[in-house]
Amino acid sequence: MSIEVIFGQQLRKIREERKLSQEELAFRSKLDRTYISLLERGKRRPTLNTIFALTAQLDIAPSELVRMVEKNLDI
Predict the structure, then answer these.
(1) Rounded CA gap, 24 and 5, in Å?
(2) DSSP H or E stretch at residue 68
């Protein structure tokens, strides 16, 4: 599985645990809802700015999200 797909899976998991819709997360992080959807489906690569914007609204450290992705990589 690609890093983008794993990132998207982890992002969706955290978002759903926080009981946020894609729309609410997008609004809070000042991103477009369709971009959140593309990230969650592994269709886009997030920038560092995007990761920081998302994690600030999900109440998780950026490094923790990256760690979660790293744990799920088949390397």
Answers:
(1) 21
(2) helix 62-72
Give CA–CA dist 57/28, Å, rounded. Answer: 6
Full-model pTM: 0.92
Asked if the structure places residue 71 within a domain, the reply is no
Q: 24 in a domain, yes or no?
A: yes
| Burial class, 36, CB count within 10 angstroms (exposed 0-12 / middle 13-18 / buried 19+) | buried
Helix axes 62-72, 3-17, angle to 10 degrees: 120
Cα atoms in the Cβ-side hemisphere of radius 13 Å centred on 1: 17
Number of folded domains that form the chain? 1
Residue 74: the pLDDT is 72
